[in-house]
Amino acid sequence: MPASVNLDKLRLPGDALQGECRKLGRDFYDRPAVEVAPDLLGRLLVHATPAGLRMGRIVEVEAYLGPGDLAAHTSRGRTARTRAMFGPPGHAYVYLIYGMHHCINAVTGPEGSGTAVLLRAVAPVAGLAAATNGPGRLCRSMDITLDHYGADLCGDTLWLAADDAPAPAAIATSPRIGVDYAGEWADKPLRFYVEGHPAVSRRPGKRPSPVGQA
Fold first, then answer.
1. What is the distance between the alpha carbons of residues 35 and 28, in angstroms, rounded to a whole number?
2. What is the CATH number of the domain that holds 56?
3. How far apart are CA 210 and CA 190, in angstroms?
4. Centroid of chain to Cα 213
5. Nearest CA to 61 among 149, 134, 10, 12?
6. Which of 20, 71, 85, 112 could cross-link with 182 by S-S, CB 3.0 to 4.6 Å?
7. Residue 41's pLDDT is what?
8. 3 state SS of 47
């Protein structure tokens, strides 16, 4: 692990695995992205690698609402790149940005809807040795690459799960990051994150509005 990375700064005591780890079923994803997104906060992203399990607790996500959402890749229709996003729910849509950073989304809604939730940050839980605050860092630390494009998130290699940890105390929203090109969609509050968590990749300049408490 690089000496400059202190993973303790990216997690809280409550981020540790608590009780039984239960894989999320297909029905969890078969809902609108704007419903799935906040429900993913506090869930676990798990990757079974040859070197062992890598696990992080999701603390930041963004919802992408399909062809009508000008920030979504599917706004340009079905392409070779976006076919997984138009596929059945509960699969991984992985893409590369700047030719070097991978990003992973969980496909949501009914097949053909072109909707997904981008996983932006996780808190380290197990098997991670690099920073996880940001979508590219998340994928690098979790060892997620284009090889996982279209992977079944209900399978046995890469999946999302729930444990007995309490739900996040406060969830906040803000506009999504890096979508200034999307016109009126740039300002939609479709980024959801655990308020005050140290692994959140970026905080708005002004205090966000809470959208839920548990």
1. 10
2. 3.10.300.10
3. 13
4. 20
5. 134
6. 71
7. 98
8. strand
30 assigned to some structural domain = yes
Q: Distance between the two ends of the chain, CA-based, in angstroms?
A: 35
Domain assignment present for residue 214? The answer is no
Is 14 within a domain?
no
**pLDDT of 141-173, one tens digit each?**
999 999 999 999 999 999 999 999 999 999 999
Q: Which residues pair with 47 in a beta bridge?
A: 54, 158
b/e per residue 73-91 (b: at least 16 CB within 10 A): bbbeeeeeebebbbbbbbb
Torsion of CA 126, 129, 134, 139, to 10 degrees: -80
| 4 located within any domain | no
Whether the Cβ atoms of residue 89 and residue 30 lie closer than 8 Å to each other = yes
Residues 1-20: pLDDT tens digits?
344 578 999 999 999 999 99
Residue with tokens 């999307």, as numbered in its chain? 182
Is residue 44 within 8 Å of residue 57, measured between CB atoms?
yes
Domain of residue 187 covers 21-197
